[in-house]
Design a protein that fits this description.
The protein is built from three helices and 49 strands. It has 590 residues and is mainly beta. The N and C termini lie far apart (123 Å).
Length: 590
C-alpha cells in the first residue's frame, strides 16, 4: 500500500510522462533528421557523350542540408559539388559514384558514362577501276552518299581552292581535255571530312578491247580446248559505238568479221588469236590478243575414273568469291553463314568446312560464285541426273524462297587438275528468253564507312545498292574482307527476277523457276527439304551444257562445278536475293 507521499510522487511522474508523449508525437511527426536521397537527371542512370566533349550530370538531393558531397571515379575524388561537369577524352565505359553524407546517414549512387567516338561525316562515292572520266564540254554528275549527316550539316565542293558548290551533289563540266582535281568537304557538329577526286577529261573517251580474265582471282586470259572442240571467243569492249571486227590466227587474217569467233582447232598446240576493233565513225582502232592452248588428248585419256575409295561429295573449294550480301562477314553459330575470314585461302577453307557439314554458304548478290572439285571425274549418264546441288530453297502455302543459282561445268582439258579450262553453262528454263541477259556484269564498290550500303553499277548503265539491314545483322560490312580491291566486277548470266510482294499479307515471296537452277524448287528437285529449305536438293544433267551462243556442247564427263547467283534484285526488308549452296553430290549412274 502506497503512502500519501509516494502516491503524490507517482502521480507527478505519470503527468510528466503524458506531457512528454504529447510533445513528441504531436500531429504524428518526428523531429529527428531524415537521411539524404538522390534523384538522377537520367531515368536509366546512363549518360552518353562523345570523346572530347563536356558532360554535365546534375542530380537532385533532398535532406542534404550541410551535407558532404563527393564524386569518385576509380577511387579518386574528382568533384566536391553536386553538379559534376567533366570533359571525357577516352572512349569506353566509366562508372563515377556520387556520395552524399549527413549526420542522419550516407547514400551513394553509381552512374555509367558511355564515351563514344566522334562521328564526323562519311563520304561515299563509287569510283570505277578506270577512274572518273568525262568528255570535254559535257556534264558529269557526282552524287555521293553521306553518313552522319545530321544537322548542322553542310557540303562544299572546291575547285582550285574556290568553293564552286554547296549542294549534296555536284555537276562537273570542263571545256578542255586534262586532269582536274576536285574536293568535296562535308561538316557536321563532330568534325569535317574531305574526299579528294581527280576527273580525267578527254576529247573522246578512251576505247579499250580485252578478253575476260579467267576468274576474279586469276588474271590470265588464256583459254584451253581439245582438238576438234569449238571454242567461242568474244572480246569485251569499252566506249565503242559502231565497232567493226577483224580476226587473225597466228598473224593470218580470217574471214570472220563478227564480234564472236568460233575457233575449232584441227591440231594440238598453242594458237595466238587477235582481234582488231575499229570505230566506224573515226577509224580509231584497238587490238587484243588471247592465247589458246589445244590438247590433242582424247576425252577418254583425260577421264579420272571413280574408284572404290572415291567420295561422292565435293572434296575441295577452289574459289569462293561472293558478291557483297547480308550474310557476308556475319558471325554467329558455326561462324555465321559466310564467316569473317580475311584471306582467299581461309575463305575457301571455311566454305569447304561448311559444305562438308551440309551447312549453307552464301554467294551474296548477283554474280557471286563458288567453284568446287571432286576426287574423280563425274561421267555423263544416259538417264537420270549426273550430280546434285543442295540449297535451302522452299515453297509453302505461306510463301516461298527461291534464289536461283546459274550452274556451270568444266572439264579438265589440259589435265593439270585445276579449274583453268573452259566453263559451260547448263541450260535451264530461262535460257534463250528475251529477258535473260548473257554477259551481264556488275561492279561493286567498297563502302566508305562501317554499316553502309554497298553501291553497284552494271553493264546496262544502272546503279543501285545492297542495303545494310541493321535489324537482322550487325557485321561491319557486307563487302568480302578478303577482297582487297576498292571495287570488283562479276560477270555472268542474269535471270529476270520473280520476287513478289503480297499486298494482302505484306510478305515477300521469291517464286520458283521451272527447272535448271540451284537453290530453287523447280521440277528437277531430288529432295523437297523442310519448311526452312533444309535438305532441298536439285539434280543436274551434263547433257544440258551449252556454248555461249546456246548451242549444245558434247561433254562425256566433268571435273569442276561452279554456281553463281543469277538474279540482281532485292525483296524489300528481306534484302538482296542471294543463292545459298549446302553441298555438291555425284549421283551419276553407278
Amino acid at each position: 500500500m502506497l503512502t500519501p507521499s509516494l502516491h503524490r510522487l507517482s502521480s507527478l511522474c505519470l503527468a510528466i510522462a503524458l506531457l512528454c508523449n504529447v510533445a513528441c508525437n504531436k500531429d504524428d511527426t518526428i523531429d529527428a533528421p531524415l537521411p539524404p536521397t538522390i534523384a538522377l537527371d537520367s531515368e536509366t542512370g546512363i549518360y552518353t557523350v562523345k570523346a572530347g566533349a563536356e558532360l554535365t550530370v546534375a542530380p537532385t538531393v533532398e535532406h542534404a542540408d550541410g551535407a558532404e558531397i563527393l564524386w569518385r571515379l576509380d577511387g579518386r575524388i574528382v568533384c566536391r559539388t553536386l553538379v559534376y561537369t567533366a570533359v571525357w577524352e577516352e572512349v569506353g565505359d566509366f562508372y563515377p559514384v556520387l556520395t552524399v553524407r549527413t549526420e542522419a546517414g550516407t547514400v551513394e549512387e553509381q552512374i555509367r558514362v558511355e564515351v563514344v567516338e566522334r562521328t564526323p561525316p562519311v563520304i561515299s562515292l563509287p569510283v570505277p577501276p578506270e577512274g572518273l572520266q568525262a568528255v570535254a564540254g559535257t556534264e558529269l554528275r557526282l552524287e555521293p552518299t553521306y553518313r552522319y549527316d545530321e544537322e548542322p550539316f553542310r557540303v562544299e565542293w572546291l575547285r582550285d581552292d574556290a568553293v564552286v558548290g554547296t549542294e549534296r551533289s555536284y555537276v562537273f563540266r570542263a571545256e578542255r581535255a586534262g586532269r582536274y582535281p576536285l574536293l568535296v568537304r562535308a561538316t557536321n557538329a563532330d568534325g569535317t571530312t574531305c574526299r579528294e577526286l581527280t576527273i580525267e577529261v578527254f576529247d573522246e573517251l578512251p576505247r579499250a578491247v580485252a578478253f575476260p580474265a579467267r576468274s576474279h582471282r586469276d588474271p590470265s586470259t588464256d583459254r584451253h580446248t581439245l582438238v576438234g572442240r569449238t571454242l567461242l571467243l568474244r572480246p569485251e569492249l569499252r566506249h565503242f559505238t559502231h565497232p567493226r571486227f577483224a580476226w587473225s590466227i597466228d598473224g593470218r587474217p580470217t574471214a570472220c568479221t563478227d564480234p564472236l569467233l568460233r575457233f575449232t582447232p584441227t591440231a594440238g598446240g598453242t594458237y595466238r588469236i587477235a582481234v582488231t576493233v575499229t570505230e566506224a565513225e573515226t577509224a580509231a582502232s584497238r587490238t587484243a590478243e588471247v592465247v589458246v592452248h589445244c590438247s590433242n588428248k582424247s576425252e577418254r585419256e583425260l577421264l579420272r575414273p571413280r574408284t572404290a575409295g572415291s567420295s561422292l561429295r565435293q572434296q575441295r573449294v577452289w574459289e569462293w568469291t561472293p558478291a557483297p550480301g547480308q550474310f557476308i562477314g556475319e558471325t554467329g553459330p558455326q561462324g555465321g553463314m559466310t564467316g569473317n575470314e580475311t584471306t582467299p585461302e581461309a575463305a575457301d577453307a571455311w566454305a569447304l568446312r561448311r559444305l562438308t557439314a551440309k551447312l549453307p554458304v552464301s554467294l551474296g548478290g548477283f554474280g557471286g560464285y563458288i567453284v568446287v572439285g571432286f576426287d574423280h571425274s563425274i561421267p555423263r549418264g544416259s538417264t537420270g541426273y549426273d550430280f546434285a546441288i543442295a540449297g535451302n530453297a522452299y515453297t509453302s502455302n505461306g510463301g516461298s524462297s527461291n534464289e536461283p543459282g546459274i550452274v556451270w561445268v568444266m572439264q579438265d582439258t589440259n589435265g593439270n587438275g585445276e579449274p583453268d579450262d573452259e566453263w559451260y553453262e547448263l541450260r535451264g528454263s530461262e535460257t534463250g528468253k528475251a529477258e535473260t541477259l548473257q554477259e551481264y556484269a556488275v561492279t561493286y564498290y567498297r563502302p566508305a564507312g562501317p554499316r553502309m550500303a554497298v553501291e553497284w553499277s552494271d553493264s546496262e548503265g544502272q546503279r543501285g545498292s545492297i542495303d545494310y539491314l541493321p535489324a537482322f545483322h550487325d557485321q561491319e560490312s557486307y563487302y568480302p574482307a578478303w577482297i582487297g580491291a576498292e571495287a570488283y566486277t562479276l560477270r555472268g548470266t542474269r535471270l529476270s527476277a520473280q520476287n513478289r510482294l503480297d499486298p494482302a499479307t505484306g510478305f515477300w515471296s521469291n517464286l520458283a523457276y521451272a527447272w535448271g537452277y540451284a537453290d530453287n524448287t523447280g521440277s528437277d528437285r531430288i529432295a523437297e527439304g523442310d519448311e526452312e529449305g533444309n535438305g532441298q536438293e536439285t539434280g543436274f544433267r551434263i547433257a544440258n551444257a551449252v556454248y555461249p551462243d546456246g548451242t549444245p556442247v558434247e561433254l562425256q564427263f566433268i571435273d569442276f562445278v561452279k554456281v553463281q547467283t543469277g538474279v540482281n534484285a532485292r525483296s524489300g526488308h528481306l534484302g538482296e536475293i542471294s543463292t545459298e549452296v549446302c553441298s555438291f553430290r555425284d549421283c551419276a549412274e553407278q
